[in-house]
Design brief:
This protein is an alpha+beta fold and 359 residues long. Strands 1, 2, 3, 4, 5, 6, 7, 8, 9, 10, 11, 12 and 13 form a 13-stranded mixed β-sheet that branches. Strand 8 and strand 9 form a beta hairpin. Helix 1 crosses helix 3, helix 3 runs antiparallel to helix 7 and helix 5 packs across helix 7. The longest helix is centred in the first third of the chain and has 23 residues. The chain is elongated.
């Protein structure tokens, strides 16, 4: 029976506390110093947990300020290493041992060790794409923002408004978790390592392709622009060659919710029009178009009338141009548009007539 993430984290916390207690009790000998360094470098979770424990030491901050080697020099040394890791060898440990014999505080040695490990860990992503430690990196946008990120493997992620992805690479897989919103992925081909995008409803597996993933309320929409992908439902990929997988080719779109929706073929340019700051809709219900528009700008479109929300409309609008969208809505037959600085209220002429009669 495999341990849970919570059990693993608890074990790391206990180890960090034990190492901190031993360091505080006095200088470690040569052998124990080597074990401590190896433990720190084994995982970023070790460094994180040790820093959390060490933060309780009142003199740690003062000690770090007295370290002779500036962080920039440590960073340069890390980048010069072939694996992007600061070497902590026997010579380095011997130097640390001599410093303790000169009666420098043990906490100074402790802080230096932690800083070396932290610098090594933080430079891995830019040098070796996090393979060595499986580091995670999160990218996010606020409402109205869009962003482009190039990952260490050469893949490109285009983040739409109010979106977030967490990227974690390993030797076996490139995993991207879409926490919210929408992203377009341009995947760099790697024969030995697939790229997988995971949401709460399902996932997408690709090797070298271009596709869009939109995490909606209750469903995830996947649209393929180039190449092909395999889509599955659930929190983990099913066994290989299982009939649960669904293959999508260019122009295919599929929604995954409690089940797998019907595969449909669309103009893929419509799905990624947001990259040109546009919303394109073809016979879409007005309520869904309004909800899409509300993702971008500070002004909210409100439609209370259910019949009006179901009204199919077609057109192209600038996702950030509130005035143009309001003007478009005003051209619809029987529609009244009321504007304030913070909202656009859309009503029917019939809904206003009882109020007019009352006056």
């Amino acid at each position: 029976m495999s341990p849970t993430d919570e059990q693993i984290r608890a074990a790391i916390a206990e180890q960090a506390s034990q190492w901190f207690t031993e360091n505080r009790a006095g200088p470690l000998d040569h052998k124990e110093s080597g074990r401590f360094m190896a433990w720190l470098q084994a995982s970023p979770a070790h460094v994180e947990e040790y820093l959390r424990v060490a933060a309780l030491a009142p003199d740690l901050e003062r000690a770090t300020k007295r370290i002779d080697t500036p962080r920039e020099i440590l960073l340069a040394r890390a980048r010069a290493e072939p694996d992007g890791i600061v070497s902590i060898n026997r010579t380095g440990l011997a130097k640390l041992g001599r410093s303790t014999r000169q009666r420098r505080p043990a906490v100074r040695v402790l802080a230096a060790a932690v800083i070396l490990a932290v610098v090594a860990v933080t430079t891995v992503w830019s040098i070796r794409d996090g393979e060595r430690f499986g580091l995670a990196r999160t990218y996010s946008t606020r409402r109205g923002e869009q962003q482009i990120q190039t990952l260490p493997d050469g893949s490109i992620v285009h983040l739409n408004t109010d979106s977030a992805v967490t990227v974690r690479f390993s030797r076996a897989e490139r995993l991207i978790s879409l926490g919210r919103g929408e992203a377009l992925f341009q995947v760099a081909h790697q024969d030995h390592r697939r790229l997988r995008v995971q949401t709460d409803r399902g996932g997408v597996v690709a090797v070298g392709t271009q596709f869009d993933v939109y995490r909606k309320s209750g469903t995830t929409a996947v649209t393929v622009i180039e190449g092909s992908v395999e889509v599955y439902r659930g929190s983990a990929p099913p066994p290989a060659h299982s009939d649960i997988w669904t293959r999508l080719n260019p122009g295919d779109q599929l929604e995954v919710g409690d089940g797998i929706g019907a595969l449909r073929h669309i103009d893929a340019r419509v799905a990624v029009a947001w990259m040109q700051r546009q919303i394109v809709f073809q016979d879409e219900p007005l309520g869904e178009v309004a909800a899409e528009f509300n993702r971008y700008g500070p002004v909210t479109v409100e439609i209370d009338d259910e019949a009006l929300r179901a009204l199919p409309i077609s057109g192209i609008v600038d996702a950030y141009d509130t005035d143009s969208f309001a003007a478009y809505l005003a051209t619809l037959k029987g529609v009244i548009v009321q504007k304030t600085p913070t909202r656009i209220r859309v009503l029917t002429q019939a809904s206003l007539e009882p109020h007019a009669a009352a006056h």
